[in-house]
Specification:
Two copies of one chain form a homodimer.
Chain A lengths: L4 H15 L6 H7 L6 H6 L2 H12 L12 H17 L4 H6 L6 H16 L4 H23 L14 H11 L2 H17 L3
Helix pairs in contact in A: 5-7, 5-8, 7-8, 8-10
The first copy, chain A, binds a DNA duplex through helix 3.
DNA sequence: ACCTGAACACCGTTCAAGT
DNA sequence: ACCTGAACACCGTTCAAGT
């Protein structure tokens, strides 16, 4: 019974969720699939190919046209979907950012963002650059959000005021920080019109 | 003659510049330093510790207070310095984003950003969240900017219009895309006042 | 033709043995 | 006390040999 692609990807995601991206190895994946060591390369190509396939899978559904409505609301929906998609897998954002996939799901996500902005009246080049900027913000945010933080020293009373505020910022609810940052970007985008 | 920390870090950066982050191994570093295999762990701790030290080094100077002037210009200066710092090493942004350093250079960069915004009149929590959002954009941008892109199919005439525009966006000058995205964010930040 | 597992050339890290 | 190199438990990938 040959290994089926969905089985391989599911097993890979389980491994990454369980142990993190850095612990994910092709050999562990083969073991989990009760397959010999070299089988992955035979069916799938190298380890990087597996990661790229997972990245593309993560983007499933992100680029479906959001419900009709104001362009800014539709763009916000897209940004939230992208964040959700990346959060759907441990180290998902880091994985995504270490690939450069040009497969349907990934392309559609960018395409849909551009379409929303062009329909709203933006010239295509500005639409593209805007979608890109938003994507960079979301990816950067979720990478940080998913990265394990070293336990901060409990006693910051020796530090200056600003460093304490910085520590408070980092430990604040990431969902609210995301909303805030996305709001800034959206306010800037509105000014393009 | 014991290995000196600056020598270790310089050799590590040379290796990463030459072969990329994924090819960087503690053993190659030891070989480059003409040191035995286990020496790194003895002097420095594990491979991740070397990467964190490099990340902290990359941030040197970023957080120096920018020249006096309008707050938005000072913030832009900070963003440019951060981008430059990350571009200073192959895969620098990916390296930086896979660490969570709480050392002087890195903390100072965040602190200075907050200070600029607080002096401009923003409450500390908004200042922190704003700096964070800007950092996420910059890091996300440079990760993409530094990532090797697969050669796109030369002939996109079969693709639809939007996909062609998307391809044009990705291949556009990254410095100009950066300026554009940073401008969006700044326009949003100005609306906070 | 398709599959596989043994083998190759590596890893990071530890720790007994040396100085 | 400080250093080191041999050894351990892994890697990703290839490719001869099998079916």
């Amino acid at each position: 019974m040959p290994l089926r692609r969905p089985d391989i990807l599911r097993a890979a995601r389980e491994l990454i969720d369980a142990e993190g991206l850095d612990e994910f190895t092709a050999r562990k994946l083969a073991t989990a699939l009760k397959a010999p060591a070299g089988e992955l390369q035979w069916y799938f190509g190298d380890r990087q190919a597996v990661l790229e396939a997972i990245a593309e899978d993560l983007m499933a559904g992100v680029g479906e046209p959001p419900p009709a409505g104001p362009w800014d609301q539709r763009l916000i929906t897209l940004a939230h979907r992208l964040r959700r998609a990346l959060l759907g897998l441990r180290d998902g954002a880091r994985l995504f950012s270490s690939t450069f996939v040009t497969e349907p799901n990934t392309l559609l996500a960018g395409r849909t963002g551009m379409q929303i902005l062009i329909e709203a009246g933006l010239p295509p080049d500005q639409a593209g650059w805007t979608v890109m900027a938003m994507t960079h913000f979301v990816v950067g945010h979720v990478i940080e959000e998913q990265s394990p933080r070293p336990e901060l020293p409990a006693d910051l009373s020796g530090e200056d005021e600003l460093i304490r505020e910085l520590a408070a910022t980092v430990t604040a609810d990431p969902a609210r920080r995301f909303e805030f940052g996305l709001g800034l970007l959206l306010d800037g985008i509105r000014r393009l019109f």
